[in-house]
Amino acid sequence: MIPFMDLSDPPLQINITNATISEFIPPNLKMEPKSPHGIHIKAINGSFKLHTLFTTFLPLIFKTVTVTGEADVNASNFIVKLEMDVLAENFHPLIKLRNCAVNIKNINVVYHSNSNLLDILSTMKSSISQIVVRKINIEFCKRMNQTMIANVNDMILRIPQYSKLPGNLYINYEFQV
User: Any stretches that span the bilayer, and where are they (predicted)?
Assistant: First the structure.
């Protein structure tokens, strides 16, 4: 189980918390150079299963009712698009995330709740699915930038610019954009 996100969405009055990915099939990656100094990555056909807790506030005629429960999300055929720039710092290459987007083509959300209002919630299935997709997009891109790109840059900075190889061969490089 991978803890994934804990976000709320006040304008729509739906909170999604304790989301956990239980199954993940990575997408197929396609990487291309992007002019002038960048990389474009497109990942397609991935899938995952996610379990989450939710709280929503349903406005009824005279009052707002709170509905809480759990949701199971099955998502497939998701597409991730990343655009990155390659920069130079101290003659080392560094990667900067320029654009990030996640789109999920097929999503199914199943709700579990003890509330009698679950039928009303089921009519909002499309809206809640869109919220889940948006929150996944936000969280994925945030983590991509804060964790993965930072780790890659840290690893790149640790590569020595001058190295001795077997057979009296040497590597000496400088990276400039």
Answer: none
Local structure of 105: helix, strand or coil: strand
Residue 19's pLDDT is: 82
DSSP 93: E
| Virtual torsion, Cα 107, 71, 144, 138, nearest 10 deg | 80
The answer to whether 107 and 75 are in contact (CB under 8 A) is: yes
User: Can you identify the CATH homologous superfamily of domain 2-172?
Assistant: Bactericidal permeability-increasing protein; domain 1 (3.15.10.10)
**Cβ atoms of residues 54 and 68 within 8 Å:** yes
Put simply, whether the predicted model's pTM sits higher than 0.70 gets the answer no
Cα 84 from Cα 39, distance rounded (Å)? 5
